[in-house]
Amino acid sequence: PEVAGIKVRCKHQLKPGDELTINYVDLALGRRARRAMLKRAYNFWCECQRCAFEGDDAYSCTECKLLSPSIDNPNPNLTNG
């Protein structure tokens, strides 16, 4: 008989005790947007490594803080260098 549960496919070999996580939101979103969506939808403030890293505001320039809509369609106003 089949046991109730879920099946997970991984890109690399897992060891017993390895942590598995699920993305609840699009990781291409900036940190603020991801956290706001998680707070609204699931009522928690994410403290994962990615959300805790202040430099992770997807596609933002670390110098001028302007956001680029995507890698394929960059913001031409971002500073160069």
List keywords for this structure.
mainly alpha, methyltransferase, SET_dom_sf, SET domain-containing protein, single chain, 81 residues, 2 helices, histone H4K20 methyltransferase activity, S-adenosyl-L-methionine
Topology:
Blueprint: H1 31-42, H2 49-52
Could you describe the 3D structure shown?
The protein has 81 residues and is mainly alpha-helical. The chain is built from 2 helices and no strands. It has one domain. The longest helix is centred in the middle third of the chain and has 12 residues, at 31-42. The radius of gyration is 17 Å and the shape is elongated.
Short summary of the structure?
By secondary structure, the protein is mostly helical. The chain contains 2 helices and no strands. The longest helix is centred in the middle third of the chain and has 12 residues, at 31-42.
